[in-house]
Amino acid sequence: MLKIFRPCDFHVHLREGQVLKHVLKENNKNFQKILVMPNLAKPITNEKILSKYRALVLKNNRNTEILFTIYLNQDCKISDLKNMIKNNLFFAAKLYPLHATTNSSSGVKDIKKMSKYFEFLEKNKIPLCLHGEHIHKDDDPYERERRFLEYELSWLVKNFKNLKITLEHITTKDSVDFVKLNNNIAASITTHHLLENTNTFLGDYLKPELFCKPIIKSKKHQKSLLSAALSGNSKFFFGSDSAPHLKKYKFTESCCAGVYSTKYSVSNILELFYSSKKTNNLNKFLTINGCKHYNLKFDNKLISYVRQKDFKFQKYSKFKNDSLINYNHFKNHWIIN
Ligand code: NCD
Ligand code: ZN
Predict the structure, then answer these.
(1) Which residue's CA is the nearest one to ligand 1's atom 9?
(2) N or C: which end of the chain has fewer CB within 10 A?
(3) pLDDT tens, 116-129?
């Protein structure tokens, strides 16, 4: 048996409509807090869109604290941001480089032209969450994260020393090292980047269900992520980047980027820490470190998990005419007792 605090997921995509209802229910089963991403088909760039989305999410939510984000780009108005902060409507700002990932066509082309926004966030103590990939048509996709550290992130940390930054869903040793070396920056790590590598993703048959941004990296990088997460280092915490896409958009000619991991993510993390004999650091990775980084109080009531006997992996969660593809790694499965 394992006793842990109810976990937090500091990076989830809830989407809209039927998918939202299903995904939120799965989140309600597992998490005390979730940080919800703003990359809807029409991104959340202003108060009007945010208020509508908040109402939709909160109406369907039961028992999870929802932390909303705003989609920060050059169209955001400082006066609008000010007003939303005054009314406590969002918790963090999310920045997507242009064309970096799903629904990023309203993303930012040149981060260095966003200084007035960074100054504003810094002054108002609003965290900045980053999709950390440098996008250039000639660059190799495997190099995008490393280049982002070099071209954008180094500049950011140097010029905005009091800005609280989260480098999201990190995938490389370079990012682990960068985060350790710099102040005011922490990183989230997903289940699939901890548990998969280029061999499991495309070494044998290609698995579209594991295709995501940033792309899954080699064993060397996976090892570095694992040691950061398992060590309990306060700069690293869980953010699943659980990103549902209907099966018809994953198993097709142009596969969408995103791994949907919510259903089994806590179980996978528990099994990882258990099999690595690091259960003493579970609460740090799943709850404490993220809350500390974001200055949040958390519920420290303990919940018991046990290993389920005769676990059968449910690969698909069905919808009317389609389904979501669940991600799971281990044969052993943990459930709430
Ligand atoms: C995410 C999505 O589908 O919204 N996709 C992904 O591959 N991770 C967006 C993101 O976080 O990059
Ligand atoms: Zn994401």
Answers:
(1) 102
(2) N
(3) 999 999 999 999 99
What is the Cα gyration radius of the chain? 19
Domain-wise residue ranges, the chain: 2-336
- Reported as type and span, the H/E element at residue 119 is helix 115-123
Q: Ligand 1: does its nearest atom lie under 6 Å from the Cβ of 243?
A: yes
Out of 241, 299, 310, 322, pick the active-site residue: 241
Which of 25, 3, 224 lies closest to 12, judged by CA? Answer: 25
Q: Please give the mean pLDDT across all residues of the chain.
A: 98
**Tokens 């064993």, residue?**
219
pLDDT by residue (tens digit) across 290-315?
Answer: 999 999 999 999 999 999 989 999 99
CA of 181 to the centre of ligand 2 (A): 24
pTM over 0.70? The answer is: yes
β-sheet bridge partners, residue 186: 166
Read off the pLDDT of residues 54-102 as tens digits, 9 standing for 90 and up.
Answer: 999 999 999 999 999 999 999 999 999 999 999 999 999 999 999 999 9
CATH of range 2-336; options 3.40.190.10, 3.20.20.140, 3.40.50.10540, 3.30.200.20: 3.20.20.140
Cβ–ligand 1 distance for 102 under 6 Å, the answer yes
User: How deeply is 234 buried, as exposed, middle or buried, from its count of CB atoms within 10 A (0-12, 13-18, 19+)?
Assistant: middle
State how far the Cα of 112 lies from the Cα of 169, in Å rounded to an integer. 22
Structure token pair of residue 315? 């690969």
* CB neighbours of residue 162 within 10 Å: 11
- Find out whether 318 and 308 touch, Cβ atoms under 8 Å: no
The reply to whether 110 belongs to the active site is: no
Q: Which helix (H) or strand (E) holds 5?
A: strand 2-5
